[in-house]
Design brief:
- The structure holds two protein chains of two kinds.
- Chain A is an all-beta fold.
- Chain A contains no helices and eleven strands.
- Chain A has strands at 4-7, 10-13, 19-25, 31-38, 42-49, 56-57, 65-67, 73-78, 87-94, 104-105, 109-113.
- By secondary structure, chain B is mainly β.
- Chain B has no helices and twelve strands.
- Chain B has strands at residues 3-6, 10-14, 19-21, 23-26, 32-38, 44-50, 56-58, 64-68, 73-78, 87-94, 102-103, 107-112.
- In chain B, the strands form three sheets. In chain B, strands 2, 5, 6, 10, 11 and 12 form a six-stranded mixed beta sheet that branches. In chain B, strands 3-9-8-7 form a four-stranded antiparallel beta sheet, with no helix packed on it.
- Chain B is globular and about 40 Å long.
- Classes of the chains: A mainly beta, B mainly beta.
- At the A-B interface, strand 4, strand 5 and strand 9 of A face strand 6 of B.
Chain lengths: 114, 113
């Protein structure tokens, strides 16, 4: 069972470079999320999507863009990477937003910006 | 707006000892509460959740948590820990927008032999 898959798992970028993180889920979930995890700060929501073709800003959206062209994929883009974006990025998905729905997380993508 | 505070950043315990990881939240609306566990280099896994009903919630791996509305707390407990419980634990809350979780800072539980 694949669940939520993130690629790449590790990446080192130079300041100013761009990159895209790919998240894929095979559970036919409507809702998808991108979080970043920083020491001592828990996880913070960057952007989320409530369905194919939709995106919305989360708590810390600046410097990131997202797209949800296909229901199973949610892409997170960094147009011009900055050292402050060094973090671990987690994608997540859920079937719905009702209380019976569990949010499933990917295994994380470690990004270092030098 | 919601916030979550995990009162301990690190908790060291010996194997077979009991443990309590503390979590306090603030919210102006009714909340759903969660505990997630993150093992090294892995994603987050749901331990347990409180949605409604009984304030004592049992989860996987022998963990349980008690929702205390008057103290706005949701502390996680296990009566006897194992080496394999060494991980980082996150308390999280969501309100009406269920999927938009607000996480605490995390508590690193280290179980020593």
């Amino acid at each position: 069972n694949a669940g939520v898959t993130q690629t790449p798992k590790f990446r080192v970028l130079k300041t100013g470079q761009s990159m895209t993180l790919l998240c894929a889920q095979d559970m036919n979930h409507e809702y998808m999320y991108w979080y970043r995890q920083d020491p001592g700060m828990g996880l913070r929501l960057i952007h989320y999507s409530v369905g194919e073709g939709t995106t919305a800003k989360g708590e810390v959206p600046d410097g990131y863009n997202v797209s949800r062209l296909k229901k199973q994929n949610f892409l997170l883009g960094l147009e011009s990477a900055a050292p402050s974006q060094t973090s671990v990025y987690f994608c997540a998905s859920s079937l719905g937003t009702g209380p019976g729905n569990t949010i499933y997380f990917g295994e994380g993508s470690w990004l270092t910006v030098v | 707006a919601q916030s979550v505070t995990q009162l301990d950043s690190q908790v060291p315990v010996f194997e077979e000892a009991p443990v309590e990881l503390r979590c306090n939240y603030s919210s102006s609306v009714s909340v759903y509460l969660f505990w997630y566990v993150q093992y090294p280099n892995q994603g987050l896994q749901l331990l347990l959740k409180y949605l409604s009903g009984s304030t004592l919630v049992k989860g996987i791996n022998g963990f349980e948590a008690e929702f205390n509305k008057s103290q706005t707390s949701f502390h996680l407990r296990k009566p006897s820990v194992h080496i394999s419980d060494t991980a980082e634990y996150f308390c999280a809350v969501s309100g009406t927008s269920y999927g938009k979780l607000t996480f605490g800072q995390g508590t690193i539980l280290t179980v020593h032999p």
